[in-house]
Write a structure and sequence with these properties.
Layout (H helix, E strand, L loop, with lengths): L7 E9 L6 H23 L3 E2 L10 E7 L3 H9 L3 E2 L2 E2 L1 E8 L2 H9 L4
Antiparallel strand pairs: 1-3, 1-6, 2-3, 4-5
Length: 112
Amino acid sequence: MPSNNERTRYIVFEILSENTFEASNIFHAVWNSSLQLFGDIGTSELSMAFLSNLYNKEKKMGILKCNNESVEKVRLIIANIKTIEEHPIVIKTVGLTGTINSAKNKFLKTKS
């Protein structure tokens, strides 16, 4: 019998910039980009979440969670972000995993 649970994916990203940013600024940039591209309903269908507790300000790396059918849309959302707090940035996708532990261990180099 099939499960009703969505299959989750974790997108690990890195911010290329001379500046560092707070997790809340990253969240707002991602959310605004998503609303701009897909609107309220489209954004809600992505099941997207920014895992602010795993954001590494020094390494400028973080993790976005989404359902497996939304991965390409979420990649588009982060590629669409060109500035944060009026500072130019580029956000690069570093990796994609199916578990949070793989995302942390492979890409953020932390142990759970």
